[in-house]
């Protein structure tokens, strides 16, 4: 039973919640900009994750400054809008963080 509990806690520790997500489209191409919180229920630490067809990357991170990731994500989505992409804020989601990152 203790092993099962430890296993469940380990699995849950790899989950992260994405609270702000922008979906940007240009024709059939799609890119996403999302804020990923490593501790659900806490605004920091956080990452701004950018995903496009060729892969994903973390553009910015914050460990202590609340609001930093949200501002960076919103600003970057707006910048994509000036480059011809149509960006819109998506519903709140929960994403699982891959083990290999």
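Sequence proposed for the structure above (101 residues):
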């Amino acid at each position: 039973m203790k092993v099962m509990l430890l296993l469940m806690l380990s699995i849950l520790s790899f989950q992260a919640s994405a609270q702000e997500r922008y979906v940007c489209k240009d024709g059939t191409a799609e890119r996403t900009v999302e804020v990923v919180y490593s501790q659900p229920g806490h605004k920091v630490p956080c990452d701004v994750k950018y995903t496009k067809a060729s892969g994903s990357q973390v553009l910015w991170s914050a460990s202590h400054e609340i609001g930093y990731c949200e501002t960076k994500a919103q600003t970057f989505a707006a910048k994509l809008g000036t480059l011809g992409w149509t960006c819109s804020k998506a519903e709140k989601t929960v994403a699982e963080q891959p083990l290999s990152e």
